[in-house]
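Usage

Read records sequentially. Each one opens with the input sequence:
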Amino acid sequence: MTFDLPAVVGLHALCALIYGFLTVLIFARLAAGEQARSRTGIWLAAACLATAIWAGAVAVLWGTRFMGIAGWLELARIASWYGFILHLYRRTVTAPRQLMQAFTTMGLLAVLLVGGWPLSDLLFHQSTASAASVGAMIRLCFAVSSILLLENMYFNTDKDARWHINLLCIGLGGLYLYDLLLYADALLFRRLSFPLFTGRAAATMVAAPLIALAAARARRWKVDIHVSREVVFHSFTLIAAGVFLVAIAATGEIMRRGGSEWGYVAEVTLIFGALLGVAVALTSGSFRSRLRFMFIDNFFSARYDYRREWMRCIDTLTAPDAHVGLHRRAIRAVAEVVDSPAGALFVRAPEEVAFQWAGSMNMPAATAPIPPGHSLIPRFGDGEWIVVFDDAPDARAGLEELPRSWLAVPLNHFGSLIGFVVLAASRAPFKLDREVYELLRVVGREVASRIAEQRAAQVLDQTRQLREYSQRFAFVIHDIKNVSGQLSMLLTNAEVHADNPEFQRDMLTTVRASVGKITRLLTRLQPDRQERSHTLVAPLEHLKAVAEACRATRAATIELPDDATGAGIAIDPESFDAVLTHLMNNAAEASGGKPVTVRLRDGSLRIEIDICDRGPGMTPEFVRDELFRPFSTTKGGGHGIGAFQARQLLRDAGGDLLVLSRVGEGTTMRILLPAVPAVPQAAV
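and closes with the structure output:
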């Protein structure tokens, strides 16, 4: 009988690759930390390695005269798996008497079978048929012994612990049943069935995922093989959908071949309906939820992949979606833990006593606040207890507006209950256990931290707005003080020059300008006022106007430059006048009647304005620590805001204010502002 050579070689080569990869994966996990001391992991890795070597030898040596080596490697494979089962039996079965009897009996049987293998080769080396029959008999005895050992281990294991070994028993038990069929057929017909022999490689590959899953969820083995829940879920979903579609297609084909006239139509209709059914099932949240829970409960020792859950929670809370506020993201982060489709958030500010509704996801808004004396609040304990409404019906009082309320998850922030999330029932029946509660507490704390962080950011923003308003108010008060000083000087001069018509005209002009300035200053205090715009200003013109006002009000001598500059500066005119007024008044006051010199320099990139007095000067320590500190002043009637305001206004325009001062030699206040080239006027 001939058999397809590529099929034999290809299947065994693929089997060798799968078990080789599983071996590398197990050894890689064993190399980390305490897992290196796991004897179970070493036994499992050795059995997988022996299987990979055996399958590889069959693929490489098939059809050659060295095929006998593969037979000895098969003995190593069988013995390694048998030894692994014996080791696992000793660790799993807790009854001492059963453990001693079975372990001793099966161990002696394994020694006899392994020792009988080379003895059979010596006795029947001249009769190939007899040797093959004895070899098949020994393999058959190994298969029967392994099945008995697996059965004994499974039923002598505590019911609560069988969950850890059931997949392994199914996988290895299936392999030994296949060996039982293969070698029973070989003894019956005195030849090896090539289809069954080749199919054993495929059966061995099918058992590999079950062995890997058993190792992944058996924590006591200390073989932490990570199997992605998403990969398992999506893979099985696709496989199940494919099997379902193939079954429907086969049913339709049978109907079509039945000879009826409507058979072809029925086949097409079944396939189309099946496609629609699969699409509906895969897009149904309830169906996917049920399927996911079924796999998690049956294939994994831990319900959650905590690394993925933590990253999902962080991504949900920090999603840059402007249309979804933090409150809705907070509900979603908690709801995804138990696959809940809806929820509502209640929070309490530090100055409040009741919990106010803050947002909902697929739930209506709750109009009534939850007072501190509500029966739900004490059930949270110290903020660590999850409330199940089915166990506490009285806690639903006041939450009638929220349908299908299921859980209440506290938001604990450093021991303080700042809120809670009410969740609707899960899409599928969900078992609440300690693992679920612990993850809900962790996510609740993270959500509470984010909400507290947002609340702190809001308070900080409000503080910043109040600070800006206070700064504007201080600037306005300082400017009003300057106007008040001008008006006071005007009243003093009026007592002497009241009858002078020219003085009267100047007085009216000054009063009118002062009223307009005060009105503009008060406008700055409006919260919704527009920011002052920067316009092109000719600095020399403003210097002359401010200097003239300073001469009139303080009788000061101001020496101005005569040359005009062709560049301008981009600044609010009122701000620029306020800076010049403050600096010139201070210079005139410090000079004590001596002239104040103003110099204007036009650079390629900036304009410098020096206002120099001949006063006593300032120490470097005073300039560093006191000059620009708000509300610090050496003047009896001062507010200590002028220098700070002047520098702040210049910095807002992209410039700065420098101080060059020597004690006993005077002070130079240097204004730096970006230069803007003057736009030439069009010829008329």
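Summary fields computed downstream for this record:
- The first strand starts at residue 343 and ends at 347.
- The chain has 19 helices and twelve strands.
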